[in-house]
Amino acid sequence: MDTEDLSHNIRQLTGINVRECYQCGKCTAGCPVGDRMDLRPSVIMRMLQSGDNASLEEVLRSNSIWLCLTCETCYSRCPMEIDIPKLMDYLREKSYSEGKVHPESRNIVAFHKSFLNSVEQNGRLHEIGLVLDYKIHTGKLFQDVTLAPEMYAKGKLHIWPEAIKDKKSLARLFKDQFKNKKS
Amino acid sequence: MKIGFYPGCSLTGSSREYNESLLAISKEAGVELCEITDWNCCGATAAHNLSKDLSLTLPARNLALAELDQMDELVVPCAACYNRLVMTQHELGENESLKKIVSEKLQMPLQNGIKILNVLQFLEKHIVPRLEQLVKNPLDFDVACYYGCLLVRPQRVMKADRFEDPMTMDVIMQKLGANPIDWPFKTECCGAGFSVSKPEIVGELSGKIVRNAVDRGARAIVVACPMCHSNLDMRRPAIETYLNMKVDIPVIYITQAIALAMGLTPRQAGIQRHFVPVNLPVNR
Questions:
Q1: Domain ranges (residues) in chain A
Q2: How far are the Cα atoms of A33, B158, B179 from residue B142, in angstroms, in the given order?
Q3: Is the pLDDT at B59 greater than 60, yes or no?
Q4: Which of A142, B7, B20, B83 could form a disulfide linkage to B150, CB 3.0–4.6 angstroms apart?
Q5: The whole model's pTM is what?
Q6: Which superfamily is assigned to A3-100 in CATH?
Q7: How far apart are the C-alpha atoms of A5 and A45, rounded to whole Å?
Q8: pLDDT one-digit tens code per residue, B237-275
């Protein structure tokens, strides 16, 4: 895929025209996690504008896309009103389904997946279930071990999940999700 | 008066005090909140990070259920749920064919016209007009009104009053007798959903917010989002590690501030559920 195709493709799929970016750098300047990113938001924009498949590949394998908090500061301040957070969502979904998640971001992705597993099971989030699932998948067994009893004492945790009645309707929404995911 | 209500998962668990205080002040003001029948999780950050499909269908199911319940106004107190529901309504409103696809997936009709209110809009419309009679214990101290991200951005969709320096919460706190400070961290991000997966980022981002509020003399930080609350309150040890000092400023929900000003007990406001003890002149 050459440069024309890449930005055209992104526009087709997301409605975002990366070519509108003129590299003012406001997105990077205001990003609360910009200093931790391997590729900063304005750099990602430039790579997608001028890049080929190799650039896209580098973006999909970056930790930046997972460090983005979707705080929407970049979008709010962009003089061209480019919806960078929406672009990040597109890149994240693609990175995840193609099995290209940056090693340092695997915990973040594991948390998201554990969250969705809990929702798929009950229709609502079960916080204990989420954290157990996360611990099993990341091996972080001892993180926050003192927090749960304290939360429970303050009435902030359900021991058992609170499930919705119409679980079938939820199962339908989750059916076929992530089925073509590469690991 | 009956209004539709989407509590979201946090309000049934980790932010129970937000739910309790909201229901308590609504009752005082004679407003009845009716929960959507069989509502589900909005999908939160996880869904929009991993699946565009789920990021639309999960919120849309709730919108469709609210329509079946014949609600025309829906209060969504959690800022994160509010953001997801409004973003979904906006996206489906702009794209008729996408709305049709989502409606087919849900196997439910979807008009997509329900009026969604965040907590500040709800308070302004239904509680503030009755405040004058209901405030019994004015809050006579400095507060830092912290809005976070999701109530104000993206401003093209959220349409907050001013996205860099919003004032709606400040105005409500003034009506309770409090003095909202002028500070630059009103809409800075707290670290959001990284509470478990990247707690050190939460420590840094929330630490900067808390430090500025303290430096400017606030006695409490007032919030309107369960995620902001748990990061600023429950994650206080990570904040103190980042700041390398002890910080005892309490973090209260705006609904708790209203409850205390109305003369409800700290227990009715759910104050005892916080990690950072709340010692304010009003509830002593």
A1: 3-100, 104-174
A2: 30, 28, 5
A3: yes
A4: B83
A5: 0.96
A6: Alpha-helical ferredoxin (1.10.1060.10)
A7: 15
A8: 999 999 999 999 999 999 999 999 999 999 999 999 999
- Going from N- to C-terminal start, the domains of chain B cover 2-117, 136-283
pLDDT per residue as tens digits for the range B136-185? 999 999 999 999 999 999 998 998 888 899 999 999 999 999 999 999 99
Fold of B136-283: Rossmann fold (3.40.50)
The rounded distance, in Å, linking the Cα atoms of B250 and B242 is: 18
Tell me, rounded to whole angstroms, the distance of Cα B57 from its chain centroid: 22
Residue B1, pLDDT > 70, answer no
Q: Write the residue in B14, B163, B197 that is nearest to A151 by C-beta.
A: B14
d(CA B193, CA B220): 23
Check A110 against B156: CB less than 8 A apart. no
Please enumerate in sequence order all residues whose Cβ is within 8 A of that of B127, keeping only pairs 6 or more positions apart, or say none. Answer: B25, B26, B29, B31, B258
B141-179: burial string, b at 16+ Cβ within 10 Å, e else: ebbbbbbbbbbbbbbeebebeebeebebbbebbebbebe
B198 touches chain A (CB under 8 A): yes
The number of beta carbons lying within 10 Å of the beta carbon of residue A10 is: 20
The CATH number given to B2-117 is 1.20.1050.140
* Nearest residue on chain B to A164, alpha-carbon basis: B38
